[in-house]
Amino acid sequence: MTSLLILTILCPLSLAAGLSFNDAAGTVSLSISQGELLGTRIDSYDNRTGYGFLGVPFGAPPVGSLRFAKPVAASSWEGVRNVTVKGVACPAVGELTYKVPEGGPMGEDCLHAYVYASKNCLMKGGCAIMWVLHGGRYNFESPVVFVDDVIVHNFASDGQDVVVVIPAYRLENFGFLNIAPGMKTSAPPNVAVWDLLLAMQWTHREAHHFGGDPEKINIFGHSAGAQFADIISTSPHFSGLFRSMTIMSGGDTAYEAGIKSNSLASWLSAELLGCADNSTSNTPTNHSNIVAIEGVIECMREKTWEEIVASNVVLNSYPEDYHGPHADGPDGILPLSPMAMSKNRKPVSLMIGTTSAEFHDTKYALNADGTPDLNKVAELCEAFTYGPAYPHPDVMTKKCLDYYMQDKNVMNFEQDTMFFMPTIVAAKANARRGHRVYLYSFTYTGIGAAFKKYMKLDPEDHPSHSEDYVYILGMHRGNFTKKDYEIEKIYSGMVMNFVKTGYPNPGEGQPKWKPFSKLGRDYYEIDFSDSSLRMPGMKKGYHADAMKLWVDDADKYGGPITPPEEYPAHSDRFYAMDIVTAYASHHLNKSVAHDKTLETENDNYKIWTDYINYRRFKHLQGLKNFRSIDIEPLDIRGVPVPDSNTLTYEPARVLFRMPVEILVICVSAILIFLLLRCCLHCAGVYQERKGYEEF
């Protein structure tokens, strides 16, 4: 106890050691365990000021034998390290990371943390830490593209007093190469996840030098960053290293990501680089030949990073893709799939939510008169329900059809399955053992020019994915009005309050925000249409109809999802966006892959869309064979599976028909359910129980 008291007394002195401000030069100096740093003052709007340390190494440059390998801690340095100017982004397609055709600075010496802090935090310490994971679907973006003055204004200035840490991680095959699933090689899978673990360990060791308290870490993520946060929160390696999470537009633990994830893209990249050849033993089916596999890996290490990125650009013309984190076996950082790991995760306090119109890419399934196209809805339902391991996917297909053939429901298919359902799954998983979950839906449609748009959208498509993010960290920021600045103050203030206290206090004059309950699925509606900017506040039934299908009915009729240990390689992940990308691109004859192309590049994707459509037929056929489900040779659309890999294959257009077996199953299930309910009622089972919840 005495030693703890002494440490508490001496801690402020250690914070101030080596700390000095040079107001004339606009710099700040401080010492961390690796050496001395020179940071920069960042002046923001509203006369707010903070300090940035723009690229502190936590990992050694992953080059040579360290490429595709687990990261190694960065070494110390002599003298003063200048971190007043941002470093390079991790290698990826430059146009996608920087959002300009010419791209920007990139390089493999990129495992750096970008740290922002107020003067108060630097001098006094004890500040909460917002540990930000960037998005980009694991394929692009970087800490270097964040907007410094917005970060300072909303979080890292005096009065806000949050320390913001943004770690980099490797992307595409630099971070997710999976050449030999299940085998121990010099290039283990999920090295990007290991990057984040090293960054988290660095944060715990060094945060106090920047005024942060490692016991007050909030993992924050948006889009793929939110998915990444959701996934790493299930890993035993991250357990106890953070106290809360903020997940915006992207839960991910509702999906299976098996041990073979990324393997097809990895092998295709190797072939494009001339490091593998399907005519030799170096094929994705010959994983037992460790010598051949290490030869492929070594060959890829000998290529320049520019050559690897160039192969990734070519890969953008193929349906194979890097999907990100996945199960990597007993000795891995994600021993089981995120779906399986989520069931036993250590719950934490959570702020989570979505915009109300994340993606409407499935509008293509509506006819010109606004009615749903039966065949297009059917192919979506079957492709999705046969992916996750529902014991009764045929029943789920029928229920999916029943729902999405109503009104214009099908335009919400992607966001229902990819955003809203995973959000509820994550909320339920963390709302245990006294932990509070705060669920929201951002419904404000008046953002307008404040959001820099890259795709043309109809009025009904707002607020779309990322529109609300302009008010938090400034990404995709357009031209702000006076009202936008007021909205930013309220919205970012709720995030800041949650990071600091665990309660997203909406502020004076706003409705109270009550915690999520499993029974009512209460959520907070965030809308600023009212002239006073008063938000609607608490509502019940977050996307109730769609969640009845994908959460309630899926549990009752589809059966509990119990993924097998392995799927066929082409079935490595069952993600709504992958399915929608395939079918929408085919029907529209252009790519709708948001991470593969900007709108200006949507010229001619006919070959690509035909091929990916063929691949989806083979994917579904392989799933049915793998799971030994007796389905007629004609799939649910009545389209025969092609026998050969023909790029110009066009499916026949025939009317949808439902197999009689499904009707028999449905009727039988209803009769059994009614009989069972009658018996239970007679036995007096139904009675009031204190504290009863639906789940």
UniProtKB/TrEMBL annotation:
Q: What is its EC number?
A: 3.1.1.-
**TM segment ranges:** 662-680
Q: What class of enzyme is it?
A: hydrolase
Is Signal there in the keyword field? Answer: yes
Cross-referenced PROSITE patterns: CARBOXYLESTERASE_B_1
Among its keywords, does the record have Transmembrane helix?
yes
- The signal sequence is 1-16
Query: Could you tell me what this protein is called?
Result: Carboxylic ester hydrolase
- Taxonomic source organism: Pristionchus mayeri
